[in-house]
Amino acid sequence: MKSFLTCILLITSFLAIGQTKTISGIAMDTTYGRMKVRIVKNDTLEKFSKALSSSIEQADTIPLNILKQKIEVYKSILDDKAYHTLTDSTGKFSIEANINDSLTFSSFNHNPAKYSVKDLLKMSNIYIRLKPIPCEPYVRCKDTIPKNTYAFVAEKIEVKRLNRNYCGIMVMFNGEYSAKYRIVKNIYGNFKSDTINFTAYDHYGKPAFSRHRYVLLFVSQYCNKLIHNQYQYFEVYPTADGRWATPGDPYRYDSYVKEKSIKAQPVMFENKLLFSIKKARKNYLSNYEKPYYQIIHGEARPLLGTYAEDLFKIKKQGALKRLNLK
Predict the structure, then answer these.
(1) Angle, alpha carbons 239-242-245 (nearest 5°)
(2) Residue 163 domain-assigned?
(3) Do 156 and 299 have their domain in common?
(4) Which of 12, 14, 280, 315 is deepest in the core (most CB within 10 A)?
């Protein structure tokens, strides 16, 4: 039986090799060759990119050598022309693919187009023309002081990137993200709805606050649009007395504040909150130092924390000081 299965696998492998075809044609976007079109087999780059992004989001807890290995694997995929290719200046391309594969054609500010190899083989001449993403006018907000500012503890519902094409702007300096959260507790500004939708901008990728389920966020209203105050947040956890707090040094994100008037205090968190640090990198371990944590068998148990109301005071002393919040 084992030898029979081996034969079947070998036959299948030979059939797959026999079904490999060379797909050649022309792919263009609306720049007519000024920008090249990328052709990717089976969404390989996107799949590896998402996996790598997920690892980078957890970079603090992933051993550095493992993270480097994943980055090297992604680089090798980028260098391997078996998975993808680019058109030349005239739009011509050629790539080897199995008849069961799919090819995705993409270019900056254009809608991608995905075809099965079987469908491409049915075309007498392969000519792919990508359609541009309709651009929308970029209206620069002139507000320097927000109409309203809100601070609240919230639970993540969704955070996703907005791939908008703004007319006349080739590249945005910051990535633009749409965020939807359920408000658990208002701290400042008393936002009226149970849920809030706002826009976040981040130069480094997906906003760091999106890694956590519950966060203390700071959102301001500029030009009738709710905007997250860039990079400002605290991850928070429920406490045994029904409040919200963050463990550790309350000034870990605001070390530059001169007058550190807020002090961490003993806090009992719900569900015996523990953080696994067995695989954490050395520089990450500094976040779990005494007297804020007790380390037992590779786990950090928070001893001291700061309640959300005091965390807001820290931001008023630091990053949000320019807003002159009362």
Answers:
(1) 40
(2) yes
(3) yes
(4) 315
d(CA 102, CA 41): 6
In a domain, 2, yes or no: no
pLDDT in tens, 1-28: 444 334 433 434 444 445 788 999 999 9
Structural domain of residue 67, as residue ranges? 20-129
Q: Which residues pair with 304 in a beta bridge?
A: 266
Q: What is the pLDDT of residues 166-217, one digit of tens each?
A: 887 766 678 899 999 999 999 999 999 999 999 999 988 889 999 999 999 9
Alpha helices in 187-246 (DSSP H): none
Mind listing the pLDDT tens digit for each residue in 74-98?
676 666 677 889 999 999 999 999 9
Strand 275-276 relative to strand 148-161: parallel, antiparallel, unpaired? unpaired
**Considering its fold, how many domains does the chain have in total?**
2
Establish if 137 belongs to a structural domain.
no
Residue burial 259-283, b: 16+ Cβ < 10 Å; e: rest: eeebebeebebeeebebebeebbee
